[in-house]
Design a protein that fits this description.
The protein has about 425 residues and is an all-alpha fold. The protein is built from 13 helices and two strands, in the order H-H-H-H-H-E-H-H-H-H-H-H-H-H-E. The protein has one domain: MFS general substrate transporter like domains (Growth Hormone, Chain: A). The chain is globular and about 50 Å long. Keywords: Cell membrane, Membrane, Transmembrane, Transmembrane helix, Transport. One of its GO terms (cellular component) is plasma membrane. Its main location: membrane.
Length: about 425
């Protein structure tokens, strides 16, 4: 039996951790593929449908509906399977599915483009919790929040670069080449993950229970943990709020600001700059600020930012609100992931993630499906203000944990044969 390295080394050794390096490199390739895919699909559908709100919102539904349907199942399997093999095969299958859709796109109708997002989203429900588990297995407890900060900063950097890369790629090469690049990026991500060390699993993971029994035990585990239950309610409210605004951001550009649709990339860029700065700040204070406090502050400030964005018809005000939202978003993301990792035993990481994420994404998909209708029946302003109120409600769910201290429980690892 191998003792975990959870007590070894200061946080300065984070970047020398082999697992951390592999996950970061893989994340870089995935972000390149995902952003090219997202903007290529968005701009392609906008062109094909002449900016139809329903068609645009259906892109988001294709991205997030599989999370609601497959997250719990994927999380349960992630607790049973080797995380390294799971992540590698998910990236390979994602690439193969992208190439299959490309072939169909070349010989069929344009609507097949929705399947690029749909299939990748399904496979990510098996891969993402495995990545979380690798953090739990291989990072010392005191490095978890700093590690999450770096990981989220990668996402933030691509909030700046991704829209530009995606837009330029689509405008320069068209939808077919954009989809091909996406598939290649997924394969490179799989290649990076092959450098991960041999899988380990938490002590106590040996079990002969059925899949259904493990799913039930996962639900019971979350219900018996106050922190996870409150986090789930926070997820629910935030998901409802984000679902209203996620597919409608492009209309802030075209309707509220009266600019061409391509200018959406600049809003994303400003938001991404804020995320980079916010992620760096959280990284600096990772050891001194409790994750539940990060979530509370982030939810409050994001609510105010959404309210301002919905009302603003001036470019600089909208950009300022986007920057502030980006600045605070890492607080929410890093706080949530850190809470899950610190408050969950290693054997339950996949299932806890698989239970909480559907609460968030299921509520998001629900309001995404309604977003176009709500916008037409009421207004874009009303939709954004409603989202802000839902963020405030989510903040109140997490407030009971605000002053709670974090307990550190070292865990042991067993070599995976």
């Amino acid at each position: 039996m191998l003792e975990s390295n959870h007590s070894a080394g200061p946080s300065s050794k984070l970047f020398s951790n082999r697992v951390f390096q592999a996950i970061i490199v893989s994340g870089l390739f995935l972000q390149i593929g995902i952003w090219i895919r997202n903007f290529a699909v968005l701009l392609f559908v906008m062109e094909q449908t002449n900016g139809d709100p329903f068609a645009v919102s259906m892109i988001s539904v294709a991205e997030f509906a599989p999370i609601f349907i497959f997250s719990f199942i994927g999380g349960t399997f992630a607790d049973r399977w080797n995380p390294k093999k799971t992540m590698v095969w998910c990236d390979i299958l994602s690439a193969l599915s992208v190439f299959a859709v490309l072939i169909t796109l070349l010989i069929g109708t344009w609507q097949v483009i929705f399947f690029v997002t749909l299939i990748s989203a399904i496979l990510s429900q098996f891969s993402q919790p495995s990545g979380m588990k690798l953090f739990k297995l291989h990072l010392p407890e005191e490095q978890v929040q700093a590690g999450m900060s770096v990981y989220q900063t990668i996402f933030a950097v691509f909030m700046v670069l991704g829209p530009v890369i995606g837009t330029v790629t689509f405008q320069s090469f068209g939808i077919e080449i954009s989809i091909m690049i996406t598939g290649i990026a997924f394969l490179l991500s799989a290649g990076a993950l092959t450098f991960l060390p041999k899988d380990y699993k938490m002590e106590g993971e040996e079990r002969a229970s059925t899949l259904w029994q493990e799913m039930k035990s996962g639900v019971k585990y979350v219900l018996n943990k106050k922190e996870l239950s409150l986090l789930g309610l926070c997820f629910l409210a935030a998901g409802l709020g984000l679902g209203f605004i996620h597919p409608l951001s492009i209309f802030l550009v075209t309707e509220q600001l009266g600019l061409p649709k391509e200018n959406l990339q600049w809003l994303f860029m400003v938001n991404g700059i804020g995320m980079v700065v916010g992620g760096a700040v959280v990284m600096i204070f990772a050891k001194t600020v409790a994750p539940q406090r990060l979530i509370t502050i982030g939810m409050l400030v994001n609510a105010l930012g959404l309210a301002v964005m919905g009302l603003s018809t001036t470019l600089w005000i909208t950009l300022t609100a986007e920057f502030v939202n980006g600045l605070m978003l890492p607080c929410i993301q890093i706080g949530i992931n850190t809470m899950i990792l610190k408050k969950t035993e290693g054997a339950y990481i996949g299932r806890v993630n698989g239970i909480l994420m559907p609460l968030f994404t299921g509520s998001m998909v629900l309001t995404m499906s309604m977003a176009g209708i709500v916008k037409e029946q009421f207004s874009l302003v009303a939709t954004f203000e409603l989202a802000a109120v839902l963020f405030i409600i989510g903040m109140f769910f997490i407030l009971p944990l605000y002053n709670q201290k974090t307990e550190v429980k070292p865990e042991k690892l067993i070599s995976q044969k």
